[in-house]
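Q: Mind making up any chain with structure tokens?
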Amino acid sequence: PRSCTSAGSMGTATTWGNPEWRNNIATEDAESIKKLKSIGVNIFGKTNVPLSLADFQSYNEIYGTTNNPYDLTRVTGGSSGGSAAALAAGLTGIETGSDIGGSIRNPAHFCGVFGHKATYELLWMRGHAPPGDNRASSDISVIGPLARSARDLETALLAMADML
């Protein structure tokens, strides 16, 4: 089956912001999404990221720019800027993202929400690779939750770690 990206959810486009993958539809949920669903989290969509998750903002040629919901002239940060913006705008209560050099932490800070870069290998990354990429991740590449409160962030982290 095809891989999912951050917040990878079956039936959703999984592009990593890459126009060549515009029609890549996830055929199964990422492991983190399965674990969130197991505690009753309702996954209803995906959010915007920069091309290959590799920028300090959230723009790509497919979906355009994600603006900061508090000031549309400002950025959300990246790469999990769509996740942070959705939380800040009140569209959702829990999000997921990935982080190597600030991709969860910076958007959370820019949008006034909570984000956590988890310890390496605490959360299983299966389903968070671009299509056809089966390489092992580096020891600084992890996934993690974002939320509107510290309590929700803790709940999401524990669920994603299968510790609830």
Observations:
- The chain is about 20% helix and 15% strand.
- The longest strand covers residues 94-99.
